[in-house]
Amino acid sequence: MVTDSEEAKAARQRLTEALVATAAEDRSAFRRLYRLTSAKLFGICLRICGERQAAEDVLQDVYLIIWRRAGGYEPGRASPISWLATIARNRAIDWRRAKGVRPTSNIVDANDIASGDMSAIDRLLAEEDDRKLHLCLDSLDDPQRQAIRTAFFDGLTYAELAQRQNVPLGTMKSWVRRGLIRLKDCLDDDS
């Protein structure tokens, strides 16, 4: 019997292989990568942009970036979905900054949209990654946990976080940096 953990590892391996093959300009691998990740990355873009059309446009840019930068992915350093999600998050924040759009609190839950297009294995992998992430987030000090959650789940910049928490920008950057280091160590230990 195959366990959930084995399924998640196999799904992560397929995603890694598709990303590495994309770096070699394998178009079929790129299509496979898109099929495996587009729902999740669209959800990230939608959550940050707050507009469906903008999220679709940003997602297109995200995949162009992925096509050009896939060779920069190092399998041993980060999970493939984390690497891809970071590109999506950064591109969506860039869009928001360029448009001068402020985040809203009534954005559609990206998980509701993303879950409809995911296969059972993809959902299993996402659920396992989410479980690990939230366990590790809960182990952080409160300022670090809050800063990281707000930055990555709500798409706020360091400056917006610092202003919201009424702390200097350098302090906020330190909280996030230290928190991300602890988070990475925790996730690596749990792998």
From TrEMBL:
Residue ranges annotated for the RNA polymerase sigma factor 70 region 4 type domain, each copy included: 131-183
Molecular function per GO: DNA binding; sigma factor activity
BP-aspect Gene Ontology terms: DNA-templated transcription initiation
InterPro entries in UniProt: RNA_pol_sigma-70-like, RNA_pol_sigma-70_dom, RNA_pol_sigma70_ECF_CS, RNA_pol_sigma70_r2, RNA_pol_sigma70_r4_t2, RNA_pol_sigma_r2, RNA_pol_sigma_r3/r4-like, WH-like_DNA-bd_sf
Source superkingdom: Bacteria
Keywords: DNA-binding, Sigma factor, Transcription, Transcription regulation
Domain RNA polymerase sigma-70 region, residue spans: 33-99
Pfam families in alphabetical order: Sigma70_r2 (PF04542), Sigma70_r4_2 (PF08281)
CDD domains the record matches: Sigma70_r4 (cd06171)
NCBIfam families: sigma70-ECF
Entry similarity comment: Belongs to the sigma-70 factor family. ECF subfamily.
Protein name stated in the entry: RNA polymerase sigma factor
Species of the source: Sphingomonas oligophenolica
